[in-house]
Amino acid sequence: MSDLLRIVGLGLIALLPLVNPLTTVALFLGLSGGMSPAQRRSQILRASVYVFIIMSVTWYAGQLVMDT
Fold first, then answer.
1. Number of structural domains, the chain?
2. Which H/E stretch holds residue 14?
3. Do 39 and 67 sit in the same domain of this protein?
4. Domain residues for 41?
5. DSSP assignment, residue 3?
6. Does pTM surpass 0.70?
7. Left, alpha or beta for 36 (phi > 0: left; psi -120 to 50: alpha)?
8. Rounded to whole angstroms, what are the CA distances from 3 to 7, 16, 36?
9. What is the pLDDT of residues 57-66, one digit of tens each?
């Protein structure tokens, strides 16, 4: 279990420069200025689900490619 947590932590650290959270937050706040808090939460949830699906598909597709 500790190996899994170490690998996940390393992956998150490796993705941090790509994601650039400070710029992403500023961009989101600028684009969602006219939205209600409920609409913002909906957009955040939708974006999170989409990113999770894209990353999962990419991970498994990459595993299939690397295994063959």
1. 2
2. helix 2-19
3. yes
4. 35-68
5. H
6. no
7. beta
8. 6, 20, 42
9. 999 999 999 8
